[in-house]
Please model this.
Amino acid sequence: MNILNLYAGIGGNRKLWGNDHEITAIENNPQIAKIYQDFFPNDKVIVADAHQYLLEHFKEFEFIWSSPPCPSHSRMNKINYNKGCPPKYPDMKLYEEIILLKYWFEGRFCIENVIGYYEPLIRPAEIRGHYFWANFYVAELGKVTRGIRSDQKPIANKHFNIDSYGMKKADHRQTLNNCVEPELGLHILNESKKEVYQELFK
Model:
């Protein structure tokens, strides 16, 4: 398939997809994009704004994966608010992408995000600590973890070793924590190949 991988990070969701697909990865951080390219040299990596790239190029792909930034939707917002932090608007680009792909895209797509602190405006599927908006049925999966925490060294080193890239400690941790578990990424891709469509949101 011709795949678009948006907000690619270092490629957690892409890790087990193999090399039989033509994959274009979009990442706006040059340092992170360089790490992704090192891990997946056969992919086309573009340093760009993923949200804008999607709008301009979605018709060119058969399958689209998107993981828009999640902090503004996270339940941590309520926790931090109770600790004295000011509230902030949720980033509505998440819903812009869901609506765009639902009504304009002819291929298959999956948009991933955290389980938020508010009732979702568009109903997702919930699988193991993630929300998924997809235009195909996604079956449940056995236990996986949200992200690859940098303090869980056996898990992190199993999938990615980024110690040699000289990242700041906070950036190192955040980069690993942002990864979608590779087994879950593969599960979603495999589900997208099945013939049965089922709309999971209204």
In short: The beta strands are 2-6, 22-27, 44-47, 63-66, 108-114, 125-127, 130-134.
